[in-house]
Automatic annotation (TrEMBL):
Binding of S-adenosyl-L-methionine, residues: 298, 325, 348, 396
Protein name stated in the entry: Methyltransferase small domain-containing protein
Active-site residues, as the UniProt record annotates them: 469
Family affiliation: Belongs to the class I-like SAM-binding methyltransferase superfamily. RNA M5U methyltransferase family.
PANTHER family: BNAA06G32370D PROTEIN, S-ADENOSYL-L-METHIONINE-DEPENDENT METHYLTRANSFERASES SUPERFAMILY PROTEIN
GO-annotated molecular function: RNA methyltransferase activity
Alphabetic keyword roster: Methyltransferase, S-adenosyl-L-methionine, Transferase
Organism, scientific name: Aquilegia coerulea (Rocky mountain columbine)
InterPro entries hit by this protein: RNA_M5U_MTase, SAM-dependent_MTases_sf, U5_MeTrfase_fam
Coiled coil: none
Membrane-spanning parts: none
GO biological process annotation, one example: RNA processing
Length: 531
């Protein structure tokens, strides 16, 4: 087993002084290996619950793998971010996941353990405390107390460094952190997003040299309020000390977001670009993607890339696809390039993602000959209209899973189609087009036509690819889809998107048509041999 010293130990001047703990992580040749999980190995004996503190570095023996894949984070007891301290490469939930898929006939479920530390490239953190002692972190479980997490092991190391710099700025400029009880103070939250996309660096150095886009959530209506001078001063401080002219270039850009609501909503609707590059580029799934701070972005960039590459293998070349719950359309656009899709429709409720989608499209290879569209719409309204006309449907819903109306449409595709036909024949006599899926295609929020004329078909999808970050809701949706006999489950893969937690990301591939139901339990009776 190959082990490497934690490369994030490169000490940045704004990183807080690290504790005297030497840690190890498996290199990609060990924990990040793809494992076929059949059957699940017996759980490793529980290691002692003391932090692994080693004064002089010695490599742990291979038998201590549970310790080597330990979180080893001093914030573990108080911070609510991580729930598991050991065996980060194998979350406890995996046994349930493996069993679930096995019962449904998927024996070759795989699990990609991905990067175990420094994986989080996007973090939203509360800012509380005082201007002399700011606290930046997550809530303690079940409370509204903030736990300061300067040494978080999940954060990309440059997020921790940027937090260190931000704290210095708060103290120096006397910025008042938000007080939830009083509704007073200036800085409420900060979002840190890391881009690891600098092609001016050798590939091996890019990840750890990532630059941080800092979004400061300011407790005012807009940038004209009396406290915004301080926001600008804080932004300038970050730029002067962490921007391209500083001795350690750490900051990619600084944004302001304005929020005065007393509710538990992090962002307000108003965003202002303050300093640095406006566009934030990342490279995943074979494409350059642009992500505005207001758009959804996956937290684990590397794991998402692995998932996308696996997903590509399930989409036929030249297919027409619809990407539901699409965000900025990263999945759809990466398929447009890698699978040369004939058409790609992305559907997303958040209008803020539109600009990011358009930016990403602007960098797609010119050779792409695909009809591409992005629609700001609620998938739960008339979902059938988004299902018709594509061979492959990709769904990537939030943790709560698919909207019930979408599950219903997926379960009853054929009857919807019959209704649609009746609808169509009653209207096609009219010159005016009334079919909602055709009208929607025309009214796309963003539409890029293919160079080759594309026929709008009314075929039904044959493949459904479900990407899930919510295991419990996935199980429910999966059972509903299978129980309708409209879909069968063909493949499933897991990805360690959130090491240290009880969550994993699942990629499941369904094919249309009835499949084998739940495997019957063996009764122990031998079947008579057929003569
Ligand atoms: C887990 S994210 C996936 C985003 C995108 N697939 C990606 O990987 O970047 C779920 C997305 O679904 C969107 N969403 C939530 N409810 C929706 C709905 N009813 N209709 C359309 N989109 C929705 C959210 O705004 C969010 O962007």
């Amino acid at each position: 087993m190959a082990l490497s010293f934690l490369s994030s130990s490169v000490h940045h001047p704004y990183s807080p002084t690290p504790p005297l703990v030497t840690t190890y992580r498996f290199s990609t040749t060990c924990c990040a290996l793809q494992q076929a999980i059949t059957p699940a190995p017996a759980p490793a004996p529980a290691p002692p619950t003391t932090t692994l503190t080693i004064s002089s570095p010695t490599l742990p023996s291979p038998s201590s793998s549970s310790l080597s894949c330990a979180l080893d984070c001093q914030h573990f007891q108080s911070c609510s971010g991580c729930t598991h301290e050991f065996n980060l490469h194998r979350p406890n939930i995996l046994n349930d996941v493996t069993d679930f898929f096995k019962i449904l006939g998927v024996d070759d479920f795989t699990f990609d353990t991905c990067r175990l530390y420094g994986w989080r490239c996007r973090a939203k953190l509360a800012v509380r405390g005082s201007s002399t002692n700011p606290l930046i972190g997550l809530y303690e479980e079940g409370t509204h107390n903030i736990v300061d997490i300067p040494f978080c092991r999940a954060h990309h190391p440059n997020i921790n460094a940027a937090i260190g710099l931000l704290k210095q700025g708060i103290v120096k400029l006397d910025v008042e952190p938000y007080d939830e009880d009083e509704g007073t103070g200036e800085l409420r939250y900060v979002q840190m997003a890391v881009t690891t996309h600098s092609t001016s660096l050798p590939a091996a150095e890019r990840y750890l040299s990532g630059k941080v886009q800092v979004s400061l959530v300011w407790n005012s209506r807009n940038e004209n309020s009396h406290s915004s001078e301080k926001l600008n001063a804080l932004s300038n401080f970050l730029w002067r000390n962490g921007g391209p002219r500083s001795s350690f270039h750490l900051i990619h850009s600084v944004w302001g977001n304005f929020q005065t609501s007393t509710k538990n909503i992090i962002f307000g609707n108003r965003w202002r670009h303050l300093l640095g590059e406006r566009d934030f580029w990342e490279h995943v799934g074979g494409v350059d993607i642009s992500l505005a701070p207001s758009s959804f972005g996956q937290a684990n960039t590397r794991a998402f890339d692995s998932l996308l590459r696996k997903l590509h293998t399930y989409v036929p070349y030249g297919a027409s696809i619809t990407d539901l719950y699409a965000g900025a359309g990263v999945i759809g656009l990466s398929l447009a390039v890698s699978r040369k899709c004939r058409s790609v429709r992305c559907v997303e409720i958040n209008k803020e993602s539109k600009l990011s989608f358009e930016n990403t499209v602007s960098r797609l290879p010119k050779s792409i000959d695909s009809s591409i569209s992005w629609h700001q719409a609620d998938t739960s309204h008339e979902p059938f209209s988004w299902l018709v006309g594509s061979e492959v449907i990709v769904v990537d819903p939030p943790r709560k899973g698919l909207d019930p109306s979408l599950v219903d449409a997926l379960q009853n595709l054929k009857s919807y189609k019959l209704k649609a036909k009746a609808f169509e024949s009653s209207f096609l006599k009219d010159k005016d087009e009334k079919r909602p899926w055709i009208l929607r295609a025309r009214e796309a929020s963003v539409q890029i036509e293919s160079k080759t004329a594309q026929e709008i078909t009314q075929s039904l999808p044959n493949t459904l690819i479900y990407i899930s970050c919510g295991w419990e809701s996935f199980k429910e949706d999966c059972r509903s889809l299978l129980s309708s006999n409209s879909w069968r489950l063909e493949k499933a893969h897991g990805f360690n998107f959130f090491p240290g937690t009880e969550s994993i990301e699942v990629l499941a591939v369904f094919k249309r048509g009835p499949g084998v139901g739940l495997k019957k339990k063996k009764t122990g009776k031998k079947k008579k041999k057929q003569q």
